[in-house]
Amino acid sequence: MKISFLDFEQSIAELEAKIEELRAVHDSSPLDITKELNQLQQKSINLTKETYNNLTAWQISQVARHPQRPYTLDYIQALFTDFEELHGDRAFADDPAIVGGLARFEGKPVMVIGHQKGRDVKERQFRNFGMPRPEGYRKALRLYRMAEKFGLPIITLIDTPGAYPGIGAEERGQSEAIARNLYVMAELKTPIIGVIVGEGGSGGALALGVVDQLLMLQYATYSVISPEGCASILWKSQDQASTAAETLGITATRLKAAGLVDRIVNEPMGGAHRAPDEMMDSLRKALADELSKLEAKPIKALLEQRYDRLMSYGKFKDAALK
Amino acid sequence: MSWLKKILPPKIKRVIGPSKKNVPEGLWSKCPKCDSVLYRTDLEANAEVCPKCEYHNRISARERLDFLLDEKGRKEIGADVQPVDPLKFKDTKKYADRIKASQKEVGETDALIVMKGSIKNVPVVAASFEFKFMGGSMGSVVGERFVRGVQEAIKTKSAFICISASGGARMQEGLFSLMQMAKTSAALTKLSEAGLPYISVLTDPTMGGVSASFAMLGDIIVAEPQALIGFAGPRVIEQTVRETLPDGFQRAEFLVDHGAVDIIIDRRQMRDKLSVLIAGLMKLPVAA
Asked: At what angle do helices B174-193 and A299-312 cross, to 10 degrees?
């Protein structure tokens, strides 16, 4: 697959185009330019490293939304075996913006649930750009309950711009669907691990995000509002999205420092889409590690810990404690 | 502001409550819905409901608690919890300055007031949103006060009531504000375990992160007439679907029609009806 480059990667793109050209020359002519090619390739690697070592929050949001970034079903295919997708909320419809089902992780049965975005125009439409409707959250809820009943750990993969703001979604109770998931996940008697693999868009992400351990890929984002949305409300201008992204503190490093994310999973140089296999390997290791730790805990202790952690969220001062 | 209020220390001022700034000074006010010119004292005596068209004016958190609770035995919960600026957030204005300005203008320290008390001798803890404080937005203080209210209800075997009026999460607190959705919802699981009722009262407006968490989790969900209630704001939906929204979309009556709300209660009957509902759930005698 040909890598598509983001705006801030233009100098890398130019270099790569040049390498491509030279390679064509190299293949068709007797001249030996291997040395030059290697030099250029090294230069491209260095430039990518340099760029990715200094990404701004706004640039990270672009990487998190990269059209070639691995999506939930890619992770499921690579990290799990025997996946059987289970459909529908048993009340209204099946929402393709959330996929879930039984699978095996390292041989052990688990429930895996995630937001699903589309790759091409048609699929994007079908998946509604990864923006779930109430029936999507209710399907997730049904699968949470099923996992609890059969004692299966849950792994959620989070990647959504947000819950869908549509007429039908409001009619069918988008708010209630999200709220119910927050409530049920808080007391669900089985271990839950969440991984933010791309965009963690507000309440639409949180409905899959009340977990015992929250992992986040290095270039994923998690935010109460999109940088664009925030900019248009507070600065009255979308041009300030990059300032908003910085200010909101939506990156893995900022959120880890704030204690809202437990573990950052590093991505390959240039982002997960540059070397998906490498990405899968690191995520597999991190998941296996966290899952075995959670499964070692008695369920009562696990629930207490989950509750204490939920209660610890927030920053305020208590005048009575002075 | 009267000379008396000016010389009072801020703590007492809070107890007395803010001056009603939305209402023009003087004897008369105009209904924003039907344009009737109303005598102020009539409006006040009518719980700020227009006697001509039944329009429910937005009112302050403390006025609501005043309408609802018995006069005796009130105690505020969580007033010591005060806002900070965890992200050093600055847009066109610093968040720290916005907080200060709101505190000064509204006379409250944040957007949720929680009060222990009773309704016709039925023990309750009631939380009430102050919409004028940054649009009633939910940040860490709102979340913490809510949780302390729920804990107080469990401790004193009281029902818990939350009267919502909020634009949603407070984005100036970034992800901390989103997490309040999870925190408040989780606290309600404990209230439920204790077998105590939770009544959610939705008033104009209840949107976003507040709507998509505790507001929709009531054992009984009540709404005031005509209140705007929804996940996404009407403008966002209009921009997304590129259609004009139907009349009455996201209004309380619409939510009843779609099965999302149990009952619409006129503010003037709120106290009576809530006392009956809660007494029923708690198997207490119906108060006179």
From this structure: 130
CB contact under 8 A, B175 and A172: no
pLDDT tens profile A47-75: 999 999 999 999 999 999 999 999 999 99
Distance CA B199, CA B5 (A): 35
CA distance A190 to A149: 9
What is the DSSP secondary structure assignment for residue A224, as one 8-state letter?
A: S
Percent of chain B topping pLDDT 70: 91
Tracing tokens 């994007």 back to the chain, one arrives at: A124
Please check the confidence at residue A42 and state whether its pLDDT lies above 60: yes
CA gap A37, A17 in Å, rounded: 12
Most B-contacting residue of A216, A255, A300, A310 (CB-CB within 10 A), to test interface: A310
- pTM for this one? 0.93
CA A276 to CA A284: how far, in whole Å? 12
Assess contact for B269 and B117: CB atoms under 8 A: no
Closest Cβ opposite residue A235 in set B91, B177, B230: B91
B97 contact residues in A (CB cutoff 8 A): none
Taking contacts as CB-CB distances below 8 angstroms, the residues of chain B near A317 are 81-84
Q: Which residues contact A19 (CB under 8 A, 6 or more apart)?
A: A37, A40, A41, A44
Q: Where are the beta strands (DSSP E) in chain A?
A: 81-85, 98-105, 108-115, 154-160, 192-201, 213-217, 221-223, 263-265, 316-318
Contacts for B87-92: CB closer than 8 Å, 24+ residues apart: B87/A247, B87/A248, B87/A249, B87/B172, B87/B173, B87/B174, B87/B176, B89/A247, B89/B172, B89/B173, B89/B174, B90/A247, B91/A234, B91/A235, B91/A240, B91/A244, B91/A247, B91/B172, B92/A234, B92/A235
B140 touches chain A (CB under 8 A): yes
The pLDDT tens digits for B214-231 are: 999 999 999 999 999 999
Is B176 in contact with A315 (Cβ distance < 8 A)? yes
8 Å CB contact of B188 and A225? no
What pLDDT is attached to residue B269? 96
User: What is the maximum alpha-carbon separation in chain B?
Assistant: 55
Q: In chain A, what residues touch B213 (CB-CB under 8 Å)?
A: 178-179, 182, 203
Return the bridge partners of B202, or none.
Answer: B164, B223
Whether the pLDDT of residue B18 is over 90: the answer is no
How far is residue B178's CA from residue B191's CA, in Å, rounded to a whole number?
21
Complex prediction ipTM: 0.96
Q: CB contact, 8 Å: B216 with chain A?
A: yes
Q: Give the 3-state secondary structure of A35-64.
A: HHHHHHHHHHHHHHHHHHHCCCHHHHHHHH
Provide the 3-class DSSP secondary structure of residue B194: coil
